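Worked Example 4.2. Consider the chain below.
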Amino acid sequence: MPFLQQFEQFQNVSPAVQWAIFIVGCLIVVVGAISVCISLWLSIKYFVYNRRMNSRGLSGKDAARRILDKHGLQHIKVSVVGSMLFGNSYSHYFKKVRLRRLTTKKPSITSLAMGAEKSALAILDKEGDKDMRTRVVLTPLMYLGPFAFVPIVAIGVAIDVILFSFTGVATTIAAVLGLGIYSISFVLSVMTLKTEKKAQDRACTILKQEDMATDEEIEMMRQLFKLYNIQYINDIVLEFLQLLMRILQIIAKVQSSNSASNN
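Applying the procedure from the previous section yields the following structure tokens:
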């Protein structure tokens, strides 16, 4: 339901909450539009750098394999995936660096950047980096949070209907629980960005030390990484606004229910 309709729906809540819902809704629209623009610009850069061949003739898979082997990580597999779900990633649990097929077909700047950065995450994992350890342990919860909210609230509503004649008590408790998990997921998203930034810096250092890329190519990769980080920050802000909207909706529904009960 659009936030304007939600604003009209909550007629029995305080003006402050109504305006908060309206303002946060507007911010979600603005930040969402910015996110689309950033994604478009990132896609263009990704495409341009994926058409430009690197000077060493290394594909992302070749670069990842060389870096991993150099750092004693021969047991880490490098796989090519076409999945948009996993994409370019490193999995601690499966001991695998995953690279998108589009970035491993040819020895491009993009391929080299992705292969090096995801391999650097494996190196941080091996070295026991504090932030990386925390990310590994709590990663399942980070992905659970956004998906858990709706099912948890649905369970609360069902309990309300079946056991409490829909007094709203179970729904409110379930919503608070769901928001708690969602909040943890949000915090972990911030931590993930920190480890990604570490891996990006480490990747650039390795590529320079091992003479796997020129200074110009490394600068291009830094530009690409910077766009990824900007997009990630924008997504975090958008998630925070969505979390705030859910909290405001719960407050509004509680106020509305109390008002109806009093009448």
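The chain has one domain: 3-52+112-262. The CA atoms of residues 156 and 171 lie 4 Å apart. Compare this with Example 4.1 before moving on.
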